[in-house]
């Protein structure tokens, strides 16, 4: 009877979290309640942070059991030991486990994870211990593969190593970063046949741009649909920590999100936080300022599981120079110097995210961001006090000179003056606070166009970011903002789903004119198909697939021969026009040939060719829906990357993932979608279940209040820890 009474008391306490707010940790009851809604989103209620973390660990393990353990295995540098040399079952690509393990060992992440764990504050140590306890307890209840089972138990050090690996991927090889040279020294650990690492659209609208006068936030990350980049949507409700948002699977705190006070999104930026130094070698030493230096050397054994269950042992010789870890590539030797995960380490990044969500106002939020423990990412921010902010975030090294182009290539490793040892402060980074235009935005372009008027790049070091124009996707986003006098949540949702091709607006008219006047029957037919196209990549759009094929065979934007090339003096209107009719028509003829070969009409509906798919054909959970939204080269705001599928169609493997639109009114209202579903388990009902919604350009109402959550709940769990 005593235990029953205690259980009732805890449940009553959990159900009335908003009644009062204790001032300290002491006296707060342990335990949590998770209410699962019909889209597999856990709404977690708890007094204590560690109880929240425990429930969150269990929730991640329930929805992503195999993926979660595989990611932690890779963070240990032991993926090949558990899974063999190549893991074939991942989405969207196979994973070369040996390459991943070699990279992780070279960077020293397993040992550094232990050091990061020791440097956590007492409250974060308690939080992380509870998170992994939840993972391990839930794992005992899951049906797991033998490889995944061998990874258990998970430790807090595994969370640290996984965090290191995530940031290494952003800092060393993003598609838009100035540090792309760092990716030259190691094989792609995901065996990705296309360069799609990360992206995002982020807007914050101030009172001058909204009908209600409330601030609004658009958070629209673009990432690969699987592996390290998988989002998990969740809701925390606590007097201490309240946030609705998402994080990458394996991380214990929310990465982007909002609450009743504020919200933020990250976008991949053009920051260069990683440099390669080409070393001058002498025997088995290297030269620095003419003086021979010895490498720091260590030797490890990488174990690779064989099909018969035995292991092949692969010796590794790992070196470090003063600059950082050493890599050999194409007969040359390089050292990598990278912020956050090696130099100027940031073990407090998880706590910074935690404190960002707990901030009471903009001033506290900005002070928290000022720690710069997140070594990468722009931040787009809005709040209930109607503030908006965009900042070129992360750790940018304080270099001795040179411009972005100089540091984008390997530099002379023999010069000690090129070895940086510090980073710029937050107040030295480009940012816009409550600009007169009433909006800030970023879609992965350089920071100068976060708002209007453009920021003065002359106030910042020349190495901070290139002086390029915005991506076409960002130019289209700015058009959408400026073409809408004031937004409601509904008009913001329409803008988020906008598929108009800015590239078509720039080049389609001359292309049609060239083709129509060519006298070639195929080209004249192509001109007719393109003439009636609505210039969008909606599922029903006819002509979009042909235009996309023409761009693809032309080599995308870089392969076109524009009348006006990208021009910093015209950042919102170039590139434009076509100056080489012969080249344009040759490529259009190639595109027509591909359509004839595939037996497709030139005006085939876009959604008949481009598909949103999840799972394997014939399986119970297979989802196959018409897609909308096109690749980056079309210059549409709604962006997806596609890959050839077995039936000749193209399936989305990149682009819109977790998306949220927020209006900071009283109460806060929001629309959300996690495009591919909130579970990576092919047996889960939440695997791909939101793709039909994405196909119809729909979003869900976020369940925020206790009453809304209870009405939408399909399952309840109570934990006493």
Automatic annotation (TrEMBL):
Signal peptide: none annotated. Binds 1 Ca(2+) ion per dimer. This is 7-beta-(4-carbaxybutanamido)cephalosporanic acid acylase. One of its GO terms (biological process) is antibiotic biosynthetic process. Belongs to the peptidase S45 family. PROSITE patterns: PROKAR_LIPOPROTEIN (PS51257). Pfam families: Penicil_amidase. Ca(2+) binds at residues 272, 275. Keywords: Calcium, Hydrolase, Metal-binding, Signal, Zymogen. Its cofactor is Ca(2+). The active site is at 200 (nucleophile). The keyword Transferase does not apply. One of its GO terms (molecular function) is metal ion binding. SUPFAM superfamilies: N-terminal nucleophile aminohydrolases (Ntn hydrolases). InterPro entries: Ntn_hydrolases_N (IPR029055), Pen/GL7ACA/AHL_acylase (IPR014395), Penicillin_amidase_A-knob (IPR043147), Penicillin_amidase_dom1 (IPR023343), Penicillin_amidase_N_B-knob (IPR043146), S45 (IPR002692).
């Amino acid at each position: 009877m005593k235990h029953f009474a205690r259980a009732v008391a805890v449940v009553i306490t959990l159900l009335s979290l908003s009644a009062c707010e204790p001032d300290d940790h002491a006296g707060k009851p342990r335990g949590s309640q998770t209410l699962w809604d019909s889209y597999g989103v856990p709404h977690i209620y708890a007094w204590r942070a560690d109880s929240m973390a425990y429930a969150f660990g269990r929730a991640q393990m329930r929805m992503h059991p195999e993926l979660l353990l595989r990611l932690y295995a890779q963070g240990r540098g032991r993926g090949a030991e558990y899974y063999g040399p190549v893991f074939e079952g991942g989405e969207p690509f196979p994973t070369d486990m040996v390459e991943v393990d070699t990279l992780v060992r070279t960077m020293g992440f397993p040992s550094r994870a232990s050091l990061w764990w020791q440097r956590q504050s007492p409250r974060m140590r308690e939080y992380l211990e509870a998170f992994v306890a939840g993972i391990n307890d839930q794992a005992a209840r899951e049906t797991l593969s033998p490889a995944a089972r061998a990874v258990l138990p998970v430790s807090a050090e595994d969370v640290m190593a996984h965090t290191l690996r995530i940031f290494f991927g952003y800092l060393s090889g993003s598609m838009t970063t100035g540090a792309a040279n760092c990716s030259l020294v190691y094989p792609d650990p995901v065996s990705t046949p296309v360069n799609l690492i990360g992206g995002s659209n982020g807007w914050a609208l101030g009172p001058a741009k909204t009908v209600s006068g409330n601030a609004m936030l658009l958070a629209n990350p673009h990432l690969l649909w699987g592996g390290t980049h998988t989002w998990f949507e969740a809701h925390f409700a606590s007097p201490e920590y309240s946030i609705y948002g998402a994080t990458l699977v394996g991380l214990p705190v929310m990465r982007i999100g909002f609450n009743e006070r504020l919200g933020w999104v990250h976008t991949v930026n053009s920051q260069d936080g990683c440099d390669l130094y080409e070393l001058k070698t002498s025997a088995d030493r290297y030269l620095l300022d003419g003086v021979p230096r010895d490498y720091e050397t260590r030797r490890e054994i990488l174990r690779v599981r064989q099909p018969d269950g035995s292991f092949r042992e692969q010796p590794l010789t790992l070196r470090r120079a003063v600059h950082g870890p050493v890599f050999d590539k194409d007969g040359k030797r390089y050292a990598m110097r990278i912020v956050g995960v090696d130099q100027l380490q940031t073990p407090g990044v998880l706590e910074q995210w935690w404190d960002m969500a707990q901030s009471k106002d903009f001033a506290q939020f900005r002070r928290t961001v000022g720690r710069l423990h997140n070594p990468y990412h722009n931040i787009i921010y809005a709040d209930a006090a109607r503030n908006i902010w965009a900042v070129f975030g992360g750790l940018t090294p304080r270099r001795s000179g040179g411009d972005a182009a100089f540091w984008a290539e390997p530099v002379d490793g023999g010069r000690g003056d090129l070895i940086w040892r510090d980073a710029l402060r937050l107040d030295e980074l480009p940012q816009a606070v409550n600009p007169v235009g009433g909006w800030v935005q970023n879609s992965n372009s350089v920071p100068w166009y976060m708002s209007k008027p453009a920021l003065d790049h002359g106030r910042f070091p020349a190495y901070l970011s290139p002086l390029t124009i915005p991506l076409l996707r960002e130019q289209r986003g700015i058009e959408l903002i400026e073409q809408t006098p004031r937004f409601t949540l509904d008009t913001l949702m329409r803008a988020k789903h906008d598929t108009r091709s800015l590239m078509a607006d720039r080049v389609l008219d001359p292309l049609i004119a060239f083709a129509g006047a060519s006298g070639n029957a195929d080209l004249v037919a192509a001109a007719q198909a393109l003439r009636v196209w609505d210039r969008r990549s909606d599922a029903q759009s006819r002509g979009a697939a042909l235009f996309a094929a023409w761009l693809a065979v032309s080599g995308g934007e870089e392969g076109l021969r524009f009348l006006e090339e990208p021009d910093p003096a015209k950042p919102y209107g170039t590139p434009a026009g076509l100056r080489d009719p012969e080249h344009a028509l040759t490529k259009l003829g190639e595109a027509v040939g591909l359509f004839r070969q595939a037996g497709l009409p030139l005006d085939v509906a876009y959604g008949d060719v481009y598909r949103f798919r999840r799972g394997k054909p014939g399986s119970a959970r297979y989802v196959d829906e018409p897609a909308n939204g096109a690749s980056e080269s079309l210059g549409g705001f709604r962006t997806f990357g596609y890959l050839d599928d077995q039936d000749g169609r193209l399936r989305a493997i990149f682009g819109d993932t977790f998306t949220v639109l927020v209006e900071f009114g009283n109460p806060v209202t929001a629309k959300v979608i996690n495009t591919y579903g909130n579970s990576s388990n092919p047996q889960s009902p939440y695997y791909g279940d939101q793709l039909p919604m994405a196909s119809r350009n729909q979003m869900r109402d976020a369940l925020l209040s206790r009453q809304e959550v209870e009405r939408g709940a399909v399952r309840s769990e109570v934990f006493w820890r």
